[in-house]
Structures are given as C-alpha cells and as structure tokens.
Amino acid sequence: MTQSIPRISKAVIPAAGLGTRFLPATKATPKEMLPVVDKPAIQYVVEEAVGAGLTDVLMITGRNKRPLEDHFDRNYELEEALTRKGDTDRLARVRESSDLATMHYVRQGDPRGLGHAVLCAAPHVGNQPFAVMLGDDLIDPRDPLLSRMVEVQEREGGSVIALMEVDPEQIHLYGCAAVEATVDSDVVKVTALVEKPTPEEAPSNYAIIGRYVLDPAIFAILRETEPGRGGEIQLTDALQKLAMDEKVGGPVHGVVFKGRRYDTGDRGDYLRAIVRLACEREDLGPDFRSWLRRYVSEEM
Question: What region holds the Nucleotidyl transferase domain (predicted)?
C-alpha cells in the first residue's frame, strides 16, 4: 500500500534579517514592512501562501520586528475610527491582513543563517512537510509557483525547490542546482547543490530562488550541519545531503519558474517592482502610466 503524504498546511517565513541594504529606512522599520505600492512586502508573501492553501504561517523574527506582528493583528482603534467615518473600503483593507491566516511568531535569537532560521520552526512544524518562503522574492499571483511546488511534493514526496535560469555570470549570487530532466517540462530532479559558486564551479545556470517545500527530515540534517559559507548554517548544504541520499528524506525536485518575480531585496529591483505593480493596477495604472511616459520622454 502506498503511504499517503500529509497535506501541506504550514508556511515558514524567515524575517529576522537586519535589512542593511535599505538603511537608514530600516533602522527602525523592518525591511519586510517597506511598502510595495500600498501594502508591505511581507503581506504579498502571506497572500501567496494562502493562495496555495497554506493557512498556518510561522514567522521567524528577531529584535525590532514587532511591527510585523502588529500588522497582522487587529487594530481596533483604527477600525473604530474608520467605522465612524463610514469608510468601508479602507476598513476592509485594514482588516484584510488580520484575516488572512493563522499567524505565529518565534524569535531566532542569534541569527546564524537561513538553515538556522528554518531549524527554529521545528517545534511548530512537527513531522509534516512545510513551505519556506523568503520575503525578498515576490511572485506574481498570476504565475502560481508555490501551488505547483506543493502539487509536485504531494506526488513525488521528498522536497521541492524553486529554480530559475539566470545569466551564468550572475550564478555566484545564488545557490545553484545540478539537475536531470523528468517527464514534466517544468520539473527537474536535483542531484547536487552548491551555495554561490563561481561561474567556473557552477554545475548549471539554474539558481535557487526563495521558495521551498521541505520534508521534515531536513530538521535532523540541519542540527548536524556545520556552518558553511559566511559562517552560517546554510539550508543549501542540508538540501545537498537530501539530494545525495534519498533514503534520508526522499528525493529533491525542482520546479523551473519562468513567470514574473520581483526582487525586493535590492534597491533597484525594489523600485522596479513598485513601478511594474503600480502600472498594472486598475485603480492606479492608467494615470501612473501616462505620467511615466511623460517623465521618461522629458528625461531622454
């Protein structure tokens, strides 16, 4: 009898980083709370989790991250003020974030890398597959990635990572996967992983982006994983062990993503993400695009 694979319901979002690339804006404001048009970046990530059917969200936080908790909590004073004004549209938008999912929080304490952040989720996740979603990567809801990854994990077992083809000269910025083709054009089997290799060392130009669906066997491996590049416990190193020995926790597959992705961890890409999303909004797009055309023509 084939063993049933538990339905994935939990998402883990590491959010303990200091956001130094956005200083001084992030001196007192978590980088995850920086607005992308009119919502904080972190809300897009939670909405993506919910869209894929994951309604239990654990955030791995650190010091000065209280605004994250406040954002996903009720603000009764604000709601009451909007109710008195009869401002039902803004009231609905304010309540939207607190009604999205069941939110949980745990502090990472000493930040020792992504692998350590994921390990902090072990007591909450338990013995079931779960998703890890990095807040710097925003995936356009019109190009569902996480739901496809969940589908592959439930069919194949093991772990699933998100991959994207990048210019070979940029591969040193990412974890990189060696892969084998499968019967699905958008799915590959991962045979090895390397964290931020040089172009000469890279086994491919398939870069790991910030979405993972992981088998709980990852926790035992992370507990034994020594600090790697940068003196941090690297999730890539633990996934490499899973890829090399399927008996430990099943195979590792990759979903090759070719859709729209917005990188909010880089200042330039953050600005481009805001412009692209604003241009595509029905309420903002027409006027904003007209102004943008005029601005660009005047500057050229």
Answer: 10-275
